[in-house]
Amino acid sequence: MDTNLSAQAPEPAAARRTLVLAAVSLAALCMPLSFTGPAIAIPAIAADLHGTPLALAWITNAFMLSFGGCLMVAGALADRYGRKRVFLLGMAVFSAAALALAAAPGIVWLDVLRAVQGLGCAMALSSGLAALAQEFDGPARARAFSLIGTAFGVGLAFGPFLAGTLITRTGWRAIFIATAAAGLAALLAATHAMRETRDPQAQGVDWPGALTFTGALSLFTYGLLQAPDSGWGSAASLALLGGAALLLAVFIRVERRAARPMLDLTLFRLPAFAGVQLLAAAPAFSFVVLLVLLPARFIGIEGYSALEAGRMMIALSAPMLVLPVLAGMAAQRIAAAHICASGLLLAAGGLLWLSTCAPGQPPATLIGPLLLIGCGISLPWGLMDGLAISVVPVERAGMAAGIFNTTRVAGEGLALAIVSALLGTFTVAALGGTGIGAEQAAHAGPFLALGELHHAATLLPQAGAGELAQAYGAAFRHLLYVLASITTASALLILTFLRHPAGATEHIATASASKTTN
Asked: Do residues 279 and 494 make contact, with C-beta atoms less than 8 angstroms apart?
């Protein structure tokens, strides 16, 4: 049972809890804003700071990799040293990094600071959610966490529009100033209202597991991002991917032998638990990657302004504001697995529909498929967190939530790296199909894949802008085929694994007891 570390002067409980909820909601809002905003800004950043395709890709991937790799460690530190302390430190790091990003002099500094920002976000979100669970009970807790989900949805839905507005009126650096302001507001509110709590039974952090996990994730991501440029069979690619595989093997060995592992690998033997982790990663390939890829296409290939691109993205994310709540209500009568699988199949259909929309078509033709993808992914979105803890005994709910969130965020980072590599490879192949030399295609393809049409045209003066846009369209179409296939397969697997999730807790409890005995 958690204990208070410091007594504070009594004040109206409702007002204080509301302020705590506001602080954590702002922290939750900062995450999608920090993800979607820079995605809209990449073309403007490229024009200002330049940089290679790999360096530009790390603007998004550095944040997601740091955020996903540090979530479980940050949660363990918060339990041991105090949720308020870690939350305040996390928001301070996040806000300071955001302000530094607004003044970044070059692309390398931008990438490094994005990783620091992801670390701060992981510390704030993991500790903030744990602190919130101490403030509310029963239905009030459910409403509080529902508001957190709404804040996240608002950031996804309107983050691109806000970013586009700021870029159009004041420049890309204003995006980071805005997120810093939100972070500082959360910091001030938490300083005043949040109580210090910790878990008295918390033990040390599994540092060997944490370091090998983060190292494997980092090497794999870096290997995927640079492979289209250096070649999949190059020494650099093979070394990075091989190093990632080696560290993954070490991580598995460490976790099997640890007394208190960061990740209990025995849980993955259970279909329901494995199905929930697959559900956590599935939206990355059908929705999250589009938050990065579509702004690059709209601005760099279609010629939209940043504001116009932000408006288009609302069609993709706006269903998040309504449908997750309706999905939760429907789950009282329909099996959650059926709702989740149906939503993913709808999203897959939207991806196939989007594949028919070649660059240059009227914007109105894109609204339908974007809405269908957004509606489809919104159905499992509102049920995922509840399913994550329903497949384990109640005393292990915190562990299950930590693994689930790590799988979700790390999966999003990996999906971005995989999809970026695939789009780059498809683009190089499409350029080669037009008669452009292999060396020229390999050099210009990564820029074109990022939406840098003008840069690619400079490198390929013999190809017209229309021919380059057509090559990009072919590569994007093939990528959407792959994403639709992954999403369809995920839906079918989830339907199989989560057929009887309620019965999983008994098996998990048995497995845990067996491990303890051994």
From this structure: yes
